Amino acid sequence: MAITATFVSAALLGCGDEADGHVVPVVSVNELTTEELTSLPVGSQWQRHLPFGGEDGTDKIIYDAWQQSIIRCMARQGFEYEPFEYRGVPPPPLHPLDVEAARHFGYWPPEPPYVDPNRGRTEGSDAYRLALYGTPDRPGCTGNEQDRILGSLAWYIEAETSALSSFMTYIGDFATTEEGTQLASEWSKCMSERGYDYDTPKEPRAEFEHEGGSDREIAVRMADLHCDEAVELTRARSAYERRRVDEWLDANATLVQSMTEQYERFLEQVGELEHSDPL
To answer: What is the rounded CA–CA span in Å between residue 202 and residue 54?
Structure first.
């Protein structure tokens, strides 16, 4: 993902270089390698360290099973169906210290493009479209198989949702701690010195949520990243959350064991659903 590099500061926010059509201010930023970013997880990225849920998350597993069931459902009616690629919408958040992503996208990753591999079939055949999408009174393969897959796996989805809610609530309070408050204040002062008035890092993220990577967003994001590293905000947050993760795992050992066993049964059931008869 990233190549180790150093962008030398000129301390001039109005000057910069071109990157994919954006004028990027030159600020002092150390670009971390993929391995370094991986070693500093924050927020939902910690979920990958849990013994349940999988590397790509449960959503993708369920989505792929649904697409495979649509293939069989359509085949029973004499049609071919090409599965949609999992898009992960909304896409996972960018790492706060990912310089390459910041330079290209700002605060928010772009949504992956929507590509319908069956567009020619649905536009060229009423029978195909009816079999796939059905009518308001009689769902087609997409609706029937979605209900079948989600209904069959609801027991695990509910259990995982509850466990992850507990987990994220426990580890997600760094901003309210004395250390978090102090570092946010130092970050705010650093941003103010660069011409940007924000009290916390959440504010520019919210401001640019629908900006689409404008020049101003990129400029603010790069200043944010510089100030983040200057006060070691994300590094402190990751260290704090690492301790909280360990505490949660220890305090919820019985739940974690139960979820791990349920996850194994969930994967077995997904495999069975992928080979079972569609509705």
So the answer is: 28
Please give the structure tokens belonging to residue 106: 């700002």
Note the pLDDT of residue 43: 94
CA 260 to chain centre: 22
Closest CA to 89 of 106, 107, 67, 111: 111
Question: Judging by beta carbons within 10 Å of its beta carbon (0-12, 13-18, 19+), is residue 141 exposed, middle or buried?
Answer: buried
Peptide bond into 90 cis (omega under 30): yes
Instruction: Give the distance, in angstroms, between the CA of residue 19 and the centroid of all CA atoms in the same chain.
Output: 24
Q: How many angstroms from the chain centroid is the CA of residue 232?
A: 23
Upper half-sphere CA count for residue 119 (Cβ side, 13 Å):
4
pTM: 0.82
Contact partners, residue 217, CB within 8 Å, separation at least 6: 106, 107, 208, 211
Neighbours of 37 (CB within 10 A): 22
> Which band of pLDDT confidence, cut at 50, 70 and 90, is reported for residue 256?
very high
For 61-119, write each residue's pLDDT tens digit.
999 999 999 999 999 999 999 999 998 767 788 999 999 999 999 999 888 888 999 99
Query: What type of residue is 212?
Result: G
Q: Each residue of 27-47: pLDDT tens digit?
A: 556 788 989 999 999 999 999
Structure confidence at residue 27 (pLDDT): 53
DSSP 8-state class, residue 210: T
Q: What is the 3-state secondary structure (H, E, C) of 77-102?
A: CCCCCCCCCCCCCCCCCCCCCCHHHH
CA distance 79 to 72: 9
Rounded CA separation 104/235 (Å)? 22
